[in-house]
Design goal:
Structural class: alpha/beta
Cofactor: a divalent metal cation
Pfam families: CAF1
Distance between the termini: 12 Å
Strand content: 5-15%
Largest sheet: 8 strands, mixed
Family: Belongs to the CAF1 family.
Number of strands: 15
InterPro entries: CAF1_poly(A)_ribonucleases (IPR051181), RNase_CAF1 (IPR006941), RNaseH-like_sf (IPR012337), RNaseH_sf (IPR036397)
Length: 485
């Protein structure tokens, strides 16, 4: 399955379908039953179609552009994809990765036992990064007797979105990077605008930490400092700073208490002119801007020792920057209510940040919830990558992996596996490559090569990893054409 592509129906010159070899007919029959679609009136190649764009390309061939998705248009693309997937008969899935094998002895071979092959693929999925996710919903159109394809390319980059999570590390294999560059993969877009993600396991871990912080009351808005006990004031600069803050806070607090009507209009200032009254949750407050982290700790110490009615509060703005305030609260009951509101807001803010950090995993969750048939070519590694990046650590055995992945994607079809287990097709292909182009040339020879004389055939278009489409006669992911299986 390619990362993304545009396909069009191919209509033969002769309206009468030619007689197919028995093995080809058997293979087509299996594919039709698998896809649960009405049998096409022409060759299998005629079942692949896409709606044309408003205009033709520069070469006179029409096609539908692959939708390129980055973090800038993820929300819009996800909304569109949700409807496409719900209508789809099946969904094509493919990944582009930073590498395949970390050492020669970790290459997979046909004679490998299933458990050995899984361990090799697990090592690959854990070490290399997923750089692009290709998702292509196919919808059967009875009126056209064709599948309508809607290809999407999602650029991926695992940047650190949350302070509670560690930074990602991954390997790069030079042959894989060179191959992606050859097919015009846009590394700048990937690294600069790629969509980050949180796996389900990471999300659960972060939410547990957040809930513990909330329950323990140790959030950033707490009135207690992060350190244990008070800091000893040994430096003259610290002593002078704390005394100046004590005077300024007392002046501001006394002005509020003595002139309650004035603070409602925000007109109270200290004589030093450093503080101006603002409001926080209907209470007078002052912003603490321009102070270092050490000075903020000293301020908290001053408030805790000298002012029972002044509270240090730290919140986060819309741009995720922290905002520090000193808030006036005249009673203990009001203080408790204020801190409860602050902690609730902080919890909601952190949960929203976690939801935003889920990123590209929303696509995987969508495919899982819709329980559609997932189709790929030699997709064992792709599925292992999906599990490792978007679900959690890969299980230790292939049996556990099969049980776990079945809960996420209950229906998976690997076209390479279908070619391998079908004896008739295996006999026809003999020692040929198991790539999609080889299979297509065998099963659909009329659509695999351009005719020598003018005809009404419309070529199939393929797009691999870049912003431009590339014409080709086969439907295959580029990595499979390179022999990466």
């Amino acid at each position: 399955m390619p990362t993304g592509y545009t396909v069009q129906s191919i209509k033969p010159n002769n309206p009468t379908p030619r007689r197919l070899p028995p093995a080809t007919a058997v293979m087509q029959g299996r594919l039709r039953r698998l896809l649960r679609a009405p049998p096409p009136r022409s060759l299998l190649s005629g079942a692949l179609s896409s709606s044309p764009p408003p205009g033709d390309g520069g070469d006179g061939r029409s096609g539908v552009a692959v939708k390129q998705v980055t973090r800038g248009n993820l929300a819009e693309a996800l909304e569109e994809l949700r409807g496409r997937v719900r209508e789809a008969t099946f969904v094509g899935l493919d990944l582009e990765m930073s590498g395949v094998t970390s050492a020669p002895w970790r290459d997979t071979f046909e004679l490998d036992r299933a458990d050995v092959r899984y361990l090799k693929l697990r090592d690959s999925a854990e070490r290399f990064a997923a750089l692009q996710l290709g998702v292509c919903p196919f919808r059967w159109d009875p009126a056209k007797s064709a599948f309508i394809a809607h290809p999407h390319n999602f650029f991926i980059f695992p940047r650190k979105e949350l302070t509670d999570c560690s930074s990602h590390e991954f390997l790069c294999q030079t042959t894989s990077i060179d191959f992606l560059a050859k097919y015009q993969f846009d590394f700048n877009t990937c690294f600069r605008e790629g969509i980050s993600y949180l796996s389900r396991a990471q999300e659960e871990e972060v939410l547990q930490k957040i809930n513990l912080l909330h329950q323990d009351g140790t959030s950033a808005s707490s009135t207690t400092p992060e350190g244990d006990g008070d800091m000893p004031l040994k430096r003259a600069a610290d002593i002078l700073f704390t005394e100046r803050m004590k005077i300024n806070f007392k002046e501001w607090r006394d002005a509020i208490v003595s002139k309650p009507d004035d603070h409602l209009s925000g007109n109270i200032r200290c004589t030093a002119g450093q503080f101006q009254t603002v409001f926080f949750k209907m209470r007078p407050a002052i912003m603490l801007n321009g102070f270092s982290s050490h000075q903020l700790q000293l301020i908290q110490q001053v408030l805790r020792k000298n002012f029972r009615d002044l509270i240090y509060v730290c919140t986060f703005g819309e741009d995720e920057t922290s905002e520090k305030r000193v808030v006036y609260s005249d009673t203990d009951e009001d203080k408790i209510l204020l801190m409860k509101d602050v902690q609730e807001d902080l919890l909601k803010n952190r949960e929203a940040r976690v939801k935003s950090a889920i990123g590209i995993r929303h696509v995987i969750d969508l495919l899982s919830s819709e329980r559609k048939l997932i189709v790929g070519h030699s997709c064992f590694l792709d599925i292992a990558q999906v599990y490792s990046k978007f679900v959690g650590p890969l299980p230790s055995s292939i049996k556990e992996f099969a049980l776990s992945i079945h809960k996420i994607f209950p229906h998976i079809a690997d076209t390479r596996h279908l070619m391998t287990v079908n004896q008739a097709v295996q006999k026809l292909m003999k020692q040929k490559s198991k790539s999609l182009s080889s299979a297509f040339s065998l099963l659909c020879p009329s659509s695999h090569s351009y005719p020598e004389k003018p005809s009404t055939l419309s070529p199939v278009r393929i797009e691999v990893g870049g912003d431009k489409t590339m014409s080709s006669c086969f439907i295959s992911g580029a990595k499979h054409e390179a022999g990466i299986t």
